[in-house]
Amino acid sequence: MEIHILPERGLWPGLSRRDAVAEAHEETARIVAEVFDNVATYGDKAVREYEKKFTGAVRESLRVAEDEIYEAAGMITAELKESIEKAAANIAAFHGAQKMHRVEVETVPGVVCSQRQVPIDTVGLYVPGGNSPLFSTILMLGVPARIAGCRRVVMATPADATGKVHPAILYAAQIAGVTDIYAMGGAQAIAAMALGTESVPRVYKIFGPGNRFVMEAKQLACYRRGTALDMPAGPSEVMVIADKTASAEFIAADFLSQAEHGPDSQSILLTDSREVLDATVNEIERQLSSLPRREMMQKSLEHSRLIQLGSMAEVMEFANAYAPEHLIINTADAEALAGEVRSAGSVFIGQWSTESAGDYASGTNHTLPTSGYATAYSGVNLDSFCKKITYQRLTPEGVESLAPTVMVMAKAEGLEAHSRAMEVRKEALKKSALC
Amino acid sequence: MEIHILPERGLWPGLSRRDAVAEAHEETARIVAEVFDNVATYGDKAVREYEKKFTGAVRESLRVAEDEIYEAAGMITAELKESIEKAAANIAAFHGAQKMHRVEVETVPGVVCSQRQVPIDTVGLYVPGGNSPLFSTILMLGVPARIAGCRRVVMATPADATGKVHPAILYAAQIAGVTDIYAMGGAQAIAAMALGTESVPRVYKIFGPGNRFVMEAKQLACYRRGTALDMPAGPSEVMVIADKTASAEFIAADFLSQAEHGPDSQSILLTDSREVLDATVNEIERQLSSLPRREMMQKSLEHSRLIQLGSMAEVMEFANAYAPEHLIINTADAEALAGEVRSAGSVFIGQWSTESAGDYASGTNHTLPTSGYATAYSGVNLDSFCKKITYQRLTPEGVESLAPTVMVMAKAEGLEAHSRAMEVRKEALKKSALC
């Protein structure tokens, strides 16, 4: 862990830097481009061959059948089922409240403009496989997609070597209302959803996390096909803001929870209290000793930072410049500080609000912008599954109100035919008035 | 113009295809990457050298000074000023109505989740130069940015050979509330805004149209720096839906208005009436003969299509699959059909609602998704200048409500430390209850 006591302002940008692991990008890009070419040419056959090569899985069909999905429910504990259902209900409650009313304004007499939230017809959700079945991610993506009203909610997730998908993943998909499940992973799964194959429908937007091949494939789908993406990817991160009232035990637990995500995830503590900073260092050591995955967590902690600043005003300035994915405000006046947040993915207000709550079940989404992208990007929310379409309706009166403005501007921009399209309507009204 | 009478369904996908002009992409990408490298290394100096090379313009400063902006107001007609002000007022009225109320939900007792629309601190607007000064684009981007509350609204637009920016552009920028104007264009302008230089602030999101170098530069900014973009680019297009009640004169005027945008813009007529289709062909010939830019417009009309389908149900199905940028519904039951639109940028309802109205002054935005991107992307709207940040606050009761769910799910995902972060809080509550 790095400890910085009252660093000079000139050092702040360096302390805000994410030390992302440099990857062999060109090689990844080459492999993924080849996968796209093969899926474009050979469709399902190419996907199945990649699946066999990378996971050893041989399935009769990429599509997961209804009976496989129903069987899954019998293979997980009642306790886990109930937890998945409760989390889904909270996510549904919060995302359902994000439904937008139609906006309608008569801007000038006879000109009514409106805006509606309309679902994206077909979306694709990617859920990584591996040892940890990330069924929480399915709830975070599938529940809002269903509430938005997407007609087809396609999910791709890799099977294990025996050709099976983890039952908790299938159960969560069922609860979330996913309509089409495919046992496929990696770049080939993204390519299949972006391009469409014999059995996989083409989707218009792709959501979800993944390894570097999956991320490169999402980028390539966006670049080649204009497939929309949820957001750019980066390692997960948490920033904790603490004053002298904060419990070092809670801060340490939040740091370790973040460290568990992977060796490149980052935790940052900002505090105006040297005592809390020192106590947190001790608490992290203490709690770490009783946790699994210690080695990986220690790697993550290496590039974590504990920073003492001169005042809470400085703390907020630093936080807004960093634009953290998760921001925990563990102070006495947490609610007031939350009002000063200008850039963050999701904010956890007060000592009882741990990141884990939002990761699983508070109701907010856990798919959030990392790496400073919170300066311009939102986390996944109901809008992520919708377009906003605008409408305008002009009456004859509206033509009269608007024509002079439109015609003057169009002519000044050198667009004569734009002016004429208004003019022919104005003339038609004049003629009909003369009749 | 292509005419298709009752084409078989198998032909529909071909008829929905955009015939975008293939460009020398690799060469463009190479040039733009070099521009980025030079701007990253040499900052303002590189930008000024590119400006001199491409426009011949030599200015003392890239930044447009206050007195240049004030002078501009004296150089355009009172009529144009008034039109710009009226258009800005309509855009402000409609985009102001898009402000979102805070969403707040208590998902379970003691767990309050909320969502707020928060402005992006610094945005960049690109406005092309050339013969037609696109001051309307400044209103469409600058007015919503101001209403959203963006602190810095940076605009880049190239100067002419004498080093001057068109006065109508400066006037519109002043009305829109742009805070920083730079006389620079092309890939170097995008690089300067994405990377930041001595005089140009780094922006988090870039908006606006441009030539292929500008578009490639926006893509590269997104790829290299995670700079957010308004949407992917493509040639402009209009789809007109008409029944037998429609005036061929109006349809033709709308086609020609679209054709004026450039040789690769596309117009499509969908109708169930052969008579209207034939009359439109004749009207286009007639109106074209009295318009400037005829040669370019004829090029655009070459890949425009007039299609007769069997019913209005088929028409709507085709329209939703095509996902047009602009959709004019020129039918007797226009309002009802507008309710069936699932994918479009902006919809013009009824015979009096010409695209020109929305291009300039109805109040809706004219920066819209082309090329079928309306399947997943929205046009520019107030949200485009905001992030949606989520918040959660747990009380001790909230910890009790949520802890079992979070702990079961975290453990099932193999994330022990996530479970602990909840558990330490539960334990602390138990202890304090015992005291």
Topology:
Two copies of one chain form a homodimer.
Chain A: E1 2-5, H1 12-16, H2 25-42, H3 44-55, H4 66-73, H5 78-96, E2 103-108, E3 111-119, E4 122-126, H6 135-148, E5 152-157, H7 167-176, E6 180-183, H8 186-195, E7 205-207, H9 212-225, E8 228-229, E9 237-242, H10 248-259, E10 266-271, H11 274-288, H12 294-302, E11 305-308, H13 312-322, E12 326-330, H14 334-338, E13 346-349, H15 355-360, E14 386-394, H16 396-412, H17 416-434
Parallel strand pairs in A: 1-11, 4-5, 4-7, 5-6, 7-8, 9-10, 9-12, 10-11, 12-13
Antiparallel strand pairs in A: 2-3, 3-14
Protein model, in words:
The structure is a homodimer of 435-residue chains. Chain A is of the alpha/beta class and 435 residues long. Helices cover 47% and strands 17% of the residues of chain A. The model of chain A has no long low-confidence stretch (mean pLDDT 95). In chain A, helix 2 (25-42) packs across helix 3, helix 4 (66-73) crosses helix 7 (167-176) and helix 8 runs parallel beside helix 9. The first copy, chain A, has 17 helices and 14 strands. In chain A, strands 1-11-10-9-12-13 form a six-stranded parallel β-sheet, with helices on both faces. The interface between A and B is large, with 129 and 131 residues. Strand 14 (386-394) of chain A pairs parallel with strand 13 of chain B, so a sheet runs across the interface.
